[in-house]
Design brief:
ABC transporter involved in vitamin B12 uptake, BtuC, mainly alpha, single chain, globular
Length: 288
């Protein structure tokens, strides 16, 4: 039996990032009805820009990291402002397909500009490590897990006690009635896009260090976040991060087993399929 402790540590770190991404997707969905499939691509592009700022323009590392987070917020906000209102009254599927188009545009830009695949973005926190028993743990891994708790708790409090959070919850219930009550719907939706984008930029930086700076890999890691959001029924801010942590731990724990290790990247897909089947089962039972 292999020693799973190092893989559990990595799994918790990855799961933490999946959890943060899932919470960002759920908050955006609850406020706008949009399931943003471009979430991972936005974070990946921000990280590649940060890499270029550090290695090409020799900007300070901290400034490049801030730029990556800000880029995520701005890119998400621009999409939400330009395409959010025209698609507001369309079916959720149409809204989701719109973000898929945005994903393909961003992926095309990354493939066109960064033709060299050999990129590496290592946060300074990775160089700070200590021993936890017999396992070497670095600060980036701790940060990934801690961020999941902080973001989930912060989002929960924000939605419950702030006026903007209350407006977002109202939008999730009924957009038309909320608008009739005088709530500035477009401003509230823009705030949701901006907040979700900032989280995308931050998670892109963490994932670039944890799994490597590869555009395609980072773009489609959104599947793991989407799976966590589906387990939480696109509603729960606590079930979603718990599912994200579970996916990260399960996927990482399969690494040392040669028979299943080549297929461990399928873990989020399997979880997503099971979640969809479970949700469909609930609707069938309700229909009966």
């Amino acid at each position: 039996m292999p020693d799973l402790r190092p893989y559990l540590v990595l799994g918790l770190a990855l799961g933490g990032v999946f959890a943060v991404s899932g919470v960002g997707m759920v908050v955006l969905y609850r406020a706008t009805g949009v399931l943003n499939l471009a979430y991972g691509a936005i974070g990946a592009l921000g990280s590649l820009i940060a890499w270029s700022m550090i290695n090409g323009f020799l900007l300070p590392d901290w400034l490049s990291y801030v730029e990556a987070v800000v880029f995520g917020g701005v890119a998400s906000l621009v999409y939400g402002v330009l395409f959010g209102p025209p698609l507001a009254r369309r079916d959720p599927l149409v809204k989701t397909v719109g973000t898929l188009g945005f994903l393909l545009v961003l992926l095309g830009v990354m493939s066109w500009v960064w033709t060299d695949k050999a990129h590496a973005l290592v946060l300074p926190t990775t160089q700070v490590s200590f021993q936890l028993g017999s396992v070497d743990v670095n600060l980036t891994q701790i940060l990934g897990l801690a961020l999941a708790v902080v973001v989930t708790a912060g989002a929960t409090l924000f939605l419950r006690i702030t006026k903007l959070g209350t407006a977002m919850r109202s939008l999730a219930n009924d957009r038309e009635i909320t608008a009739m009550l005088g709530v500035p719907v477009r401003r509230v939706e823009a705030a949701a896009w901006l907040g979700s984008g900032l989280l995308s930029g931050a998670t892109g930086l963490l994932l670039s260090t944890l799994v490597g700076l590869d555009a395609v890999t980072l773009t489609f890691l959104v599947i793991a976040s989407l799976s966590a959001a589906l387990v939480g029924r696109l509603q729960s801010l606590w079930v979603t991060p718990a599912a994200g942590l579970g996916i990260g731990v399960l996927q990482s724990s399969l690494t040392p087993f040669d028979a299943v290790s080549p297929y461990r990247s399928m873990t989020p897909f399997v979880v997503a399929i099971l979640a969809l089947l479970w949700l469909a089962r609930g609707r069938v039972l309700l229909g009966r």
